[in-house]
């Protein structure tokens, strides 16, 4: 008993370190948004280049996740996590003291690279730390809350730090957090050796997929600013590089991404469901803020406070409710319930009027979506990661995070473009009604994406389906946690 208690405390302390670093990285994806005007005025960014304070981070982060995940399997997840923390922290120091626009964009690129390294292996480390179902459900609930709520917290923190101190502190605040988390991580994280670079050091494949993902993310984040020809051109080159990478993986002796990993219906189905769900949710978060600001006329501070209930709901559900219901009813049923709530919330939100109010028209659907997201994300992670081989957990973790980043960027860009196009087409109606019409269209499209995620879940992730069709070991394990209702 006494031996088990310290071990349990060490595992939860390790989870706290992994969650703290993940929260810091997720925060940095959104914390700069509120500070962009101050950064522009101080460093002399042009209106067209200011978006690259965000895009430089997104491109390196999204492009390097898959490579970082595989490096974790080869070199050891602890080493890659600590290296990523160090790069991210030092890059934050450079960003905080940036003296011109070029320095800040370079620092943001390095932040994204460090964030990719530590984030890519974190989920795999959580799964390895908590092999038993009950503990894993609680751990994934905590981890998914950090990822889901970080965006809302970042927007609020960015405004507070910029107004109270200066924009420099949105980056400098990472220093003490990174140093403390790094020191604790050295003590509590397992020192795994990894498979060694001889087991999969496919550097040509790494170059191809990293270039493909970076160029793909570049294309996606520029959908609303680039003209059609450059967008099609960069998108085509990205697809060609991705195709070359897949050919390389079929022929390489030690592939970076063994294609056998996609033979797991659990992992493949969970990634597809994740892509559809995250596409809808990222777009929702962006567009609902625009509705609150541009249509309802809320201030920046009031808008930030308006997003607190959904973050708090995700926290309560993912930390306290999701582990219990997952243990009682199984991840599959919990995921279905979460998707129904998210889809219902989006459909409800798609009926918002131009003369609406926050309490009457926004609070209810966002709370429903918060409950649904708090239920769905831990269950989805558990279903996907549960089928990964022990030697592939870093790669599977990197794949999950890559799916989230690329799908989130794509969903945000596409839904924003759809909303803007719809608004611009309504030239003879009041501005508020035109904006609302665009947002309603985007919310309906988001509802369709969640409905597609529900269908994929039923067809692919239903317990017993994988076992009957592929004979995967462990595919029927969730049935033991699925009592008849």
Automatic annotation (TrEMBL):
Superkingdom, natural source: Bacteria
Signal peptide: none
Compartments in which it is found: Cell membrane
Domain Major facilitator superfamily (MFS) profile: residue ranges: 14-465
Keyword list, A-Z: Cell membrane, Membrane, Transmembrane, Transmembrane helix, Transport
Chief subcellular location: membrane
Transmembrane portions of the chain: 12-32, 52-68, 80-99, 105-127, 139-161, 167-189, 201-221, 227-247, 268-292, 298-320, 332-350, 362-383, 395-421, 441-461
Membrane topology listed for this record: Multi-pass membrane protein
InterPro entries the record matches: MFS (IPR011701), MFS_dom (IPR020846), MFS_trans_sf (IPR036259)
Protein name (record): EmrB/QacA subfamily drug resistance transporter
